[in-house]
Amino acid sequence: MERLNVIASHLSMSEKRGMATSEVAGSVKLFSFNPDDIVVVAALRTPIGKSRRGVFKDTHGDDLLSQAFNGVLKSVNIRPDEIGDICVGNVNDARASVTARFAQFFSGIPHTVPVSAVNRQCGSGLQAFMNIAGGIKNKAYPLGLAGGFEMMSKSGMGGKGFDDMNPRIMDVKEAKDSLIPMGLTSEIVAERYGVSREVQDRFSMDSHKKAAAATKNGHFKAEIIPVTVEVEDMEGNRRTITVTEDEGIRGNTTMEVLAKLKPAFKQGGTTTAGNSSQTSDGAAAVLVASREEAKRRGLPILGTLRAFAVVGVAPDEMGVGPAAAIPQALKMAGLTIDDIDVYEINEAFASQAAYCVRKLGIPSEKVNPKGRWVWYPCVWEQEWELLPSSNIILETYVLRDLINVYKHLNFE
Ligand SMILES: CC(=O)SCCNC(=O)CCNC(=O)[C@H](O)C(C)(C)COP(=O)(O)OP(=O)(O)OC[C@H]1O[C@@H](n2cnc3c(N)ncnc32)[C@H](O)[C@@H]1OP(=O)(O)O
Fold first, then answer.
1. Can you give the pLDDT at residue 26?
2. Which residue(s) pair with 395 in the sheet?
3. C-alpha closest to that of 388 among 249, 245, 217, 211
4. What residues does the Thiolase N-terminal domain cover (predicted)?
5. Which of 391, 386, 341, 385 is nearest to 366 (CA)?
6. Which of 14, 78, 175, 241 to pair with 39, CA 20 to 30 A apart?
7. Across 32-36, 155-159, 227-231, 362-366, which has the greatest mean pLDDT?
């Protein structure tokens, strides 16, 4: 009976995806539902603000993160003391684990619930998710909260704590390369792999236009929690505002305007403010459970984690990460490039995303339909309607937009 249900669900998926039954037959074992599957039962984020001069420039990270925590808990009516563990991804906040603890208390989650923070650079939010998923898989707890935040208005791009470095770093090429500013690694990728300024600008323009259309059509509404904050204007007056949409999307951008922008990181380079992600402020959270626990509680199942991979790449071209890691995740999931319906490739620079899409042969119509970029892949089987006729999503970073928001904005 169980098997019949599984096959029946595949048939309906194949119909939705417009595929012949035989095309999905090979993935029957992938799609079987098991009690210990890792599922997402709630996922929400704040809007994303432009750092330093945006809507959250006067807001604290813990205030923003607690909004995300509160949002997901309330959306499915979970008692805060029932959470087994919390893990939060962050790159630039030197005291992120304490900020996360503050956010927990601001959300009314009692001290008996433990919290930790994790930094895997741009993949930190996704890593937080994987840490919680690992705890559930190991039966340490059946339900956990994963989140992420970045407040670049306050932290900037990091770069703190480098005063006391081991001088030996300069003698070891890859150690030294790890200090290359991110924008310059974009220039290296563009030069090394021949990604022209025009390709970068076009990728960026398309991304902005998709994001503007997605916003206009309300596609982000279900995932964004409106946030009310105080913000100081240029004259020093404080006012209270409620933010409901992402800041920084430039739907009117044209190739002509983009072509006029000066290189941001290197004379004669091709990476500009227009084809880089902006620096941002924001936070997100997901409530994660085993399928068994979700069913027992009657919680909605938004998606099932099907595979996850991490692969290292040379530091001087860090942005080629998706090209290395996506094949690995696909292999683990028993899927091919063509099996994926939607790729969300959240990269900071158009050079990197455009290179990865080209290298992997991803059909352009499947890339970032809402205009965002991804790396650091995990494969999701979607059990809700993200987009018509899409069921399998490969995304890098986190569940749709979570986390490491500092690089997302430009392309959302
Ligand atoms: C794993 C990884 O990927 S690591 C990477 C992590 N993330 C990063 O490294 C962040 C990269 N981004 C940055 O560092 C910064 O955004 C920079 C340096 C590229 C640009 O910084 P800023 O100059 O502050 O950019 P800002 O967004 O304010 O844009 C400056 C101007 O360029 C122009 N501009 C920027 N984007 C666009 C666009 N899409 N279309 C048209 N004009 C644009 C505008 O005139 C804008 O001024 P305005 O906002 O007053 O209209």
1. 37
2. 344, 378
3. 217
4. 38-291
5. 341
6. 14
7. 227-231
pLDDT at 365: 81
Within a domain: residue 160?
Answer: no
User: Is 203 part of any domain?
Assistant: yes
| Residue 157: burial class (beta carbons within 10 Å; 0-12, 13-18, 19+) | middle
Tell me if 257 CB under 6 Å of ligand 1.
yes
Contact present, 393 and 380 (Cβ < 8 Å)? yes
Higher-scoring residue by pLDDT: 177, 399: 177
124 lines ligand 1 (CB under 6 A): no
Per-residue b or e along 224-239, where b marks 16 or more CB atoms closer than 10 Å to that residue's CB: bbebebebeeeeeeee
When comparing pLDDT for 334 and 19, which is higher? 334
CATH code, domain with 298 = 3.40.47.10
pLDDT computed for residue 31 by the predictor: 55
In a domain, 345, yes or no: yes
Q: How far apart are CA 200 and CA 178, in angstroms?
A: 24
Identify which has the larger pLDDT, 371 or 214.
214
pLDDT at position 364: 83
Can you say whether residue 85 is alpha, beta or left, with left for phi > 0 and alpha for psi between -120 and 50 degrees?
A: beta
Q: How confident is the model at residue 266 (pLDDT cuts 50, 70, 90)?
A: very high
Q: Is the CB of 253 under 6 A from ligand 1?
A: yes
For residue 141, is it within any domain?
Answer: yes
Q: Which residue has the tokens 């099932």?
A: 304
Report the atom number in ligand 1 closest to the C-alpha of 375: 1
For the CA atoms of 255, 258, 260, 264, what is the dihedral angle to 10 degrees? Answer: -150
Distance 382 CA to ligand 1 centre (A): 33
CA-nearest residue for atom 15, ligand 1, is 278
Find the mean pLDDT for residues 319-323.
85
If one counts the domains in the chain, the total is 1
Nearby residues of 134 by Cβ (< 8 Å), 6 or more positions away: none
Average pLDDT, the chain: 81
Give yes or no for a contact between 147 and 86, defined as CB atoms under 8 angstroms apart: yes
Contacts of 325 (CB under 8 A, 6+ apart): 309, 310, 311, 375, 376, 377, 396
